[in-house]
Amino acid sequence: MRSLVLVFAFFISLSASAFNDKPYNQNYDPKRDPFDDFRMAQQDAQEDGKLILIILGGNWCGWCHRLSAFIKKNESLKMDLEETFVVMKINVSGENNNADFLSHLPEPKGYPYFVIVNNEGKVIGAQNTSGIEEGKSYSVAKFSGFIDKWKGAKR
Fold first, then answer.
1. Residue 14: inside a domain, yes or no?
2. Among 84, 90, 82, which residue's Cα sits nearest to residue 35?
């Protein structure tokens, strides 16, 4: 029985780390092609019946690092996020501002910046993260509210 519980826990931990196993959501890599990444994310979103959450930011962005750490630290929130969205990160920096890709999105109003896209590729929402911030981090309740807002949206 104990080994069955361990196997079950192992598979739960694998599914919980799904956010970390896609090349398009690892970090803000100026060398990545956002069009290729979007095609992969869109395919995954279509297969899984999810929305796409594009997070615009960069390695230079302190709040972007705080957001990643916050999501990683809050496992139930992370799982809720992954049930609703395929998450991808797009670099915006002096090294590569991905202007061509960004020309298809609403203009960012601060970083990190969220763009919500349905799995057909249509932008259905966008917002900066100031509304979910709390002190020097993010609010679990406000972030959960953001996720809940999009749970019923057309995929």
1. no
2. 90
